[in-house]
Amino acid sequence: MNKRVIYPGTFDPITNGHIDVILRAKKIFEEVIVAVAVSKDKNPMFSLDKRVLMIKEATKKYKNIIVKPFDTLLVDFAKKEGVNVIIRGLRAVSDFEYELQMGYANFSLNPDIETIYLMPNLKNAFISSSVVRAILKFKGDASHLVPKEILSYLKA
Predict the structure, then answer these.
(1) For residue 14, what are the domain limits?
(2) What is the mean pLDDT of the chain?
(3) What angle, 0 to 180 degrees and rounded to 10, lies between the N-to-C axes of helices 16-28 and 48-59?
């Protein structure tokens, strides 16, 4: 049985929806590796170091959650970590097509990789990092959408 899982993403910034998926994964796996992608193509609002730091702050009260940056193919990162299960969050049907393609692509690169899709709680289903960034861009209050531990980073 797999005891470790990777939850990859850009996490720009981490949201309550991400935390929800992490905690759901913790119910199934002993250890969750939150893999923070460099994602230069997405032109993140927050630096990689800041995103890693925010996730560590948001998850420090939970055991066996490890936060690591990566700048490789996800399957290569998974192989390096000795993990063959990937968790992905699905908020809506619109996420499904993209996530299905990514799951198949990862499987084509490494047939030992399994992808498990978890849905966040309904109250978090509409939250995305892009929604949070849009609110922040216009100096709006996104405090109800993100972990309270990262609010000081968002105001900086």
Answers:
(1) 4-155
(2) 93
(3) 60
Q: Is 141 exposed, middle or buried (0-12, 13-18, 19+ CB in 10 A)?
A: exposed
Q: For 21-68, how does the pLDDT look when each residue is reduced to its tens digit (9 = 90+)? A: 999 999 999 999 999 999 878 789 999 999 999 999 999 999 999 999
> Edge-to-edge strand order for the sheet containing 4-9?
65-70, 31-37, 4-9, 85-89, 114-118
Question: Looking at residue 78, which CATH number applies to its domain?
Answer: 3.40.50.620
Asked whether the beta carbons of 71 and 44 are under 8 A apart, the reply is no
Identify whether 111 is preceded by a cis peptide bond (ω within 30 of 0): no
| Domains in the chain, number | 1
Active site residues: 18, 42, 91, 129
